[in-house]
Amino acid sequence: MRLAAPEDFAGFARQYDVGFSPLSGDVQQIMASDTGRTFMETGGANPLKSIRAMRTMIAPVIMAMAEDAYAACRDADALICLGVFSAFGRAIAEALGIAIINMEPTPLLPTRAFAAPSWPIQKDWGGAHNYLSGLAMLAVIWLWHRPFVREFRQRLGLSPRSAAGHYRAFRSTPLLSAYSPSVIPHPADWPDGVHVTGYFFLDDQADWQPSPQLSAFLEAGDPPVYIGFGSMAGRNPERLAGLIMEALAKSGQRGLLLTGWGGLRTASTPDSVFVTDSAPHSWLFPRMAAVVHHGGAGTTAEGLRAGVPNVVVPFVFDQPFWGARIKALGLGPDPIPQKRLTADRLAAAIRLAVTDPGMRQRANACGAAIGAENGVANAVNVVKQIFGEPRPGESEAE
Question: Per the domain annotation, does 246 fall within a domain?
């Protein structure tokens, strides 16, 4: 087993004794740059505008990353590739004559069941609209990468591929959908090769211990409301942090602010708010009254597993989709798009999440269902079915 990922994940791979092949480029640095922050606020809401913005962001690193991924696969028997980069993964698999499985944390295939993630209209306007939105978003993802894929396939001696050809290849490739069937059941119009396995949780910090200060804060009163947006703090993290403080005060709730990649910063905090750089979501979220986050796929998974109401403040990409999904399942209030975020709106959402008994019961039931799943084991079984059992002498990684 070998993990090919941006080089700043080398330590992560070593921690689990997994072989590692570094890919050029620092994704976190790109997202934290002025260009990345601007895109988080403005570039992702309009799919057409996102094409030029995405190409600009990835142009300095994408070809080097693709070449590094190809080098990492030279002696591989098979490849598991992130779905949004499937055009590059397919090229590598074709060039090396190896099998490929795609993996996604957020739905990518069109369906009549719901509107496509990243589509601007996250409302169910009927099956035709939903399906067409999925086709449109796959086309947008293809256009993000098209000039780079064309060059990469040329370097590998492969014939060019059209958007239609890419769609046919993507639909016919086995797909691991790493989310809960309790949240997104397998739509009837998806092929059998799509396997909704359940979330991929890495519960490696079960023995994590909080600081004495954090323990004292949690014990000093009612469960607080978690607020954190990961890398999505936008261009003015100080203003966002101030808005959060005002919303917590208006809601009358204690709060726990996690600064994250985006560097949420506040000059001063009241005794009712605790600020920390990091803490495992799996440990923290079940101890909260509610969780407020940006709606990223991983954070949403942990928020739902915790069994508490989720308040989503989406910025870009699939985040509005997860916010709409949570609302549709009755697991949280209406999502508040980042552009419309005010202290009053956030305070009202927090009050509803904390006080609505029906919402809390549904969130608790959903959390129990997700907790009973084992997405990793399910995915491993699918991989074995498709790639075959490990040969004698080979080790398994689960």
Answer: yes
Does 394 have pLDDT greater than 60? no
**Predicted local distance difference test score (pLDDT) of residue 238:** 80
Residues β-bridged to residue 229: none
- In the chain, the percentage of residues whose pLDDT exceeds 70 is 90
- Tell me the C-alpha to C-alpha distance, in Å, between residue 1 and each of 6, 71, 77: 17, 15, 10
134 and 275 belong to one structural domain: no
> 278 vs 319, which has greater pLDDT?
319
d(CA 324, CA 29): 29
Closest-CA residue to 141 (of 123, 124, 116, 159)? 116
How crowded is residue 252: how many other Cβ atoms within 10 Å of its Cβ? 11
**For residue 71, what is the enclosing H or E element?**
helix 62-72
The Cβ of residue 235 has, within 10 Å, a number of other Cβ atoms equal to 13
User: Which domain does 115 fall in, by range?
Assistant: 2-202+374-387
Only one residue has tokens 């916010």, namely 323
Angle, alpha carbons 338-343-348 (nearest 5°): 95
Instruction: Note the pLDDT of residue 396.
Output: 47
Contacts of residue 44, Cβ cutoff 8 Å, sequence gap at least 6 = 50, 53, 118, 315, 316, 317
Taking residues 231-241, report their average pLDDT.
70
Cβ proximity of 198 and 378 under 8 Å = yes
Token reading at 277: 């750089």
- Residue 398 placed within a domain: no
pLDDT at position 357: 98
67 and 32 co-located in one domain: yes
Whether the CB-CB separation of 182 and 394 falls below 8 Å is answered with: no
Residue 31 has pLDDT above 80, yes or no: no
CB 128 within 8 A of CB 134: no
Question: Are 26 and 67 contained in the same domain?
Answer: yes
pLDDT at 233: 57
Helix (H, G, I), strand (E, B) or coil at 208: coil
Verify that 28 and 159 share a domain, yes or no: yes
Name residue, tokens 């552009």.
Answer: 339
pLDDT for 340 equals: 92
Q: For residues 72-107, b (16+ Cβ closer than 10 Å) or e, as one string?
A: bbeebeebbbebbbbbbbbbbbbbbebebbbbbbbb
